Amino acid sequence: MQFVPNLISPSNLSLPGLMSGTLCVLLCAAAPSIAFGQNPPVGDKQESLVQAQMTNVTFHFSEAVAVEIKSLNGVLVPQGKNEFPVFDDKNSYNLRITTAEIAIDSSNLANLFNSYVFSGPHSPLTELSVSVEKGRLKVKGKLHDKGDIPFETEGTLIPTSDGKLRLHSEKIKALHVPVKGFIDLFGIDLGGLIKEGKVPGLQAEGDDLILDLELILPPPHIEGKVASVGIEGDDIIQMFGDTDAKPVKNIRTGNYMAFRKNRLQFGKLLMTDADLILIDMDPGDPFDFFLDHYKEQLSAGYTKITPDSGLRVFIKDYKKLHPAKAAAADGKTK
């Protein structure tokens, strides 16, 4: 790996259909499909893809939304006019997943609803909360377009044949009454909102909604095929990957994020044959990483150069940089 100076600038639907939409974003979590040692899809320029592997990482998409990446293998894919990924610029690449296990809890799902998916001025839903009860997702909130009428819905998550997520509502209530007699009264044109892009990443199909993970989460955007969805306690667990995907050996032990091969810009350094591993300084708990603040984490740690010019960056957990702030944030999500 060589380092060089940075020279780069850097149709109308029933209320059940709407209610299923409130659940649709639940699946998002997940933080993007070529793994270490696997071949890229046809059409990709292999020389522009940077291999990525992550183990036991809490990945922050924003101040309010984080997911738990138990394991992940994939690649960083340059976007737009970028010839290679720029680590600091989360819009310069997508994370394409080959295989992964990613979890998101109900508090972070609710935060994702309120702060990102349904945060726009034309959003039909507000004040959303999420909980897991007896293996099903329960969402409560208000129908903003109908005078802030309270509603609640309960349903399940199912992968589609093309790797997206289907949200199926089984029980729906408005004003604490089963919705069946209120469809005509409370019907909302969710299809129109979707077509206008006011709720991106959603596709209506009967009383179900199909969720496109590439458009739901904040950047860096992910690409990947969801193979299965399960619930453990308060967590929604998503497994990514084709059934014929081969197991990939971890390149090291502990909690880490590794990036290898081809060109990758990291801070002011341009790696022409990337060999970068970000390592958790405290392996006793998950590696807490926030791209927006990673330089703060970096400055609280240290780096090493390997004999073959690889870069090993030992990083302090984000929540441990400002413990008082982190404790306050945790309190708000419980």
Summary of the model, kept short:
This protein has 334 residues and is an alpha+beta fold. The protein is built from seven helices and 21 strands.
Low-confidence stretches: 1-35, 37-43, 180-186
Strand content bin: 35-45%
C-alpha termini separation: 45 Å
> How many strand segments?
21
Task: Give the mean pLDDT.
Answer: 78
User: What is the ordering of alpha helices and beta strands?
Assistant: EHEEEHEEEEEHHEEHEEEEEEEEHEEH
Rg measurement, Å: 21 Å
Helix content: 10-25%
Summary tags:
334 residues; seven-stranded antiparallel β-sheet; disordered N terminus
Topology summary:
Elements: E1 3-5, H1 15-24, E2 50-60, E3 66-78, E4 93-105, H2 106-117, E5 125-133, E6 136-143, E7 149-159, E8 165-174, E9 177-178, H3 183-186, H4 190-195, E10 202-205, E11 208-211, H5 213-216, E12 222-223, E13 226-232, E14 235-240, E15 256-260, E16 264-266, E17 269-271, E18 275-280, E19 287-290, H6 294-299, E20 302-305, E21 311-315, H7 323-332
Parallel strand pairs: 2-19, 4-12, 18-21
Antiparallel strand pairs: 1-17, 2-3, 2-15, 3-4, 4-14, 5-6, 6-7, 7-8, 8-9, 8-11, 10-11, 13-14, 15-18, 16-17, 20-21
